[in-house]
Amino acid sequence: MADFVGAVDQGTTSTRFMIFDHGGNEVARHQLEHEQILPQAGWVEHNPIEIWERTVAVVRTAMQKANLSASDLAAVGITNQRETTVVWDRRTGRPYYNAIVWQDTRTDRIASALDRDGRGDVIRRKAGLPPATYFSGGKIQWILENVDGVREAAERGDAIFGNTDSWLLWNITGGAKGGNHVTDVTNASRTMLMNLETLDWDDELLSFFNIPRRMLPEIRPSSDPNTYGIAHVDGPLGGDVPLTGDLGDQQAATVGQVCFAPGEAKNTYGTGNFMLLNTGTNLVRSENGLLTTVCYKFGDAAPVYALEGSIAVTGSAVQWLRDQLKIIKSADQSETLAAQVPDSGGVYFVPAFSGLFAPYWRSDARGAIVGLSRFNTDAHIARATLEAICYQTRDVVDAMAQDSGVTLDVLKVDGGITVNNLAMQIQADVLGVPVSRPVVAETTALGAAYAAGLAVGFWKNTDELRENWNESQRWQPSWSQDQREQGYGRWKKAVQRTLDWVDVD
Questions:
Q1: Do the annotations mark residue 348 as ligand-binding?
Q2: Regions in the chain scoring below 50 on pLDDT
Q3: 66-94: b or e for each residue (b if 16 or more CB lie within 10 Å)?
Q4: What is the pLDDT of residue 235?
Q5: Is residue 67 marked as binding?
Q6: Counting Cβ atoms within 10 Å, is residue 471 exposed (0-12), middle (13-18) or buried (19+)?
Q7: Secondary structure of 377-404 in the HEC alphabet?
Q8: Any binding-site annotation on 82?
């Protein structure tokens, strides 16, 4: 009897493999970072081969740490950085180009052109997304137009596309020796190419980007008893294990936070922030700058949809303090430094390094630090960075309330920055509602494990998953309403200072 479920969590800065027991408790993990390739301003790339090699290494090491073999795993799920685009040769397994990361802004002209001639409105209606550099469709088009030989290879059926879930699934199920070219509905819904109503690739949308349909993976449910394939004996798991779960990282975190009822929401704090509100089986069209996306689809059940607020730069702003400004030596020092001052001293930092995502969708914006005086120190900048994370979340929470009519009673949070107690207290203060962190903060991997385990009967139903959720800590708001609104009003003024900085044709 297999007692555990595994999950590959392929993120923006690292890849990890985690193993969970039936209670949703972590048994083992291993994690490795990969290189962030920055060829020029606005360009962000990863090496797909390095990501695959890191995946193999973390799986093998975690299994060794736990002294487990493939037969101990009932199933494996995969979750991944969404929108990050890989195009590779199905005959050789070699990528034609580096992975173009979701943060990359090189496709701004493609996105702007879509909006100028009305195609953008079709994309919003069919795919639930605004034309933006964020999503995969423009990245595929850029590779087809700018990398020699890829267009011809795509027409032949040799060049194939996937977000990083598809790249890993293809490799882990055999690669050039017959790997499965598949994805799930949540990842497909992040491409600008899938119709939210049919859950299939849409020929009209494909024509907007001039993408051959044969490049695209088969779309499957997020939790699929028919499997995405079998991890082969000579693969990283060292044996045959069914791959039965696949979810984009933010949808996986929503499942890991057991947000299975309409109106339940979670916010994940990672490289960026991503807040999802479960809207049930109803497609809710946003009028306030949010995305309509697939939340999950379990087996043959109807798809569940979500409203999403995607914020490009939150945790990566803390990394910027560490790596570029060098005012801290590690991410956890941001809390210590920021705690040296009672407030930001009038400083506001809008980290629009990749433009502004929800609810603004302004690719012309760039980062700005405003309100500086000679009084201010590095501690004020550190605190303004934490406040920026929280104010951007407030932007999204307000938009969700306008779209859905749902007012949050509590915000469920997860991800790396939630270990920063000061940041979470500021979040409660900025929102005016309690903030709750679960015992298992790595809900992205847990959600992928849940999807995989549900497919094979390791967990019977979502009620059983709810029983696994336990609160670790709760932060109560302490600011007055006047303090909250004054701070947010100044944040909105700071946001205005970032706009119209880059000329977009």
A1: no
A2: 233
A3: bebebebbbbbbbbbbbbbbbbbbbeebe
A4: 63
A5: no
A6: exposed
A7: CHHHHHHHHHHHHHHHHHHHHHHHHHHH
A8: yes
Q: What is the residue type of 202?
A: D
State which amino acid sits at residue 418: T
Cα(16)–Cα(10) distance, integer angstroms: 6
Query: Is position 156 annotated in a ligand binding site?
Result: no
Q: Which residues fall within 8 angstroms of residue 449, CB to CB, at 6 or more apart?
A: 5, 6, 7, 18, 20, 24, 77, 245
Answer yes or no: is 40 a known binding residue: no
Q: What share of the chain is helix, strand, coil (3-state, %, to 5)?
A: 35, 25, 40
Residue 504: closest CA among 361, 350, 290, 359 = 361
Q: Note the pLDDT tens digit of each residue in 255-307.
A: 999 999 888 889 989 888 989 999 899 888 888 889 899 999 999 999 999 99
Q: Is 55 annotated as a binding residue?
A: no
Q: Are 111 and 133 in contact (CB under 8 A)?
A: yes
Q: 365 exposed, middle or buried (CB, 10 Å; 0-12, 13-18, 19+)?
A: buried
Tell me the C-alpha to C-alpha distance, in Å, between residue 237 and each of 24, 94, 165, 173: 20, 22, 17, 11
- Is 249 annotated to bind ligand? yes
Task: Answer yes or no: is 227 a known binding residue.
Answer: no
Burial bucket for residue 327 (CB in 10 Å: 0-12, 13-18, 19+): middle
Annotated binding residue 285: no
377 has binding-site annotation: no
Q: How far is CA 232 from the centre of its chain?
A: 28
The number of angstroms, rounded, from the C-alpha of 66 to the middle of its chain's C-alpha atoms is: 28
Q: Is 467 labelled a binding residue?
A: no
Q: Supply φ then ψ for residue 245, to 5 degrees.
A: -135, 140
Q: What is the model's pTM?
A: 0.86
List, in order, residues 6 or more apart from 373 with CB less than 8 Å away.
Answer: 345, 346
What is the full DSSP assignment across 415-450?
EGGGG-HHHHHHHHHHHTS-EEEES---HHHHHHHH
164, containing H or E segment: helix 164-172
List Cβ neighbours of 135 (8 Å cut-off, separation of 6 or more): 83, 102, 129, 190, 191, 192
pLDDT in tens, 398-450: 999 898 888 888 899 988 889 999 999 999 999 999 999 998 878 899 999 99
Residues facing 290 on adjacent strands: none
Residue 420 assigned ligand-binding role? yes
Q: Is 77 annotated as a binding residue?
A: no
Whether residue 461 is annotated as binding a ligand: the answer is no
Cα separation, 243 vs 75, in Å, equals: 6
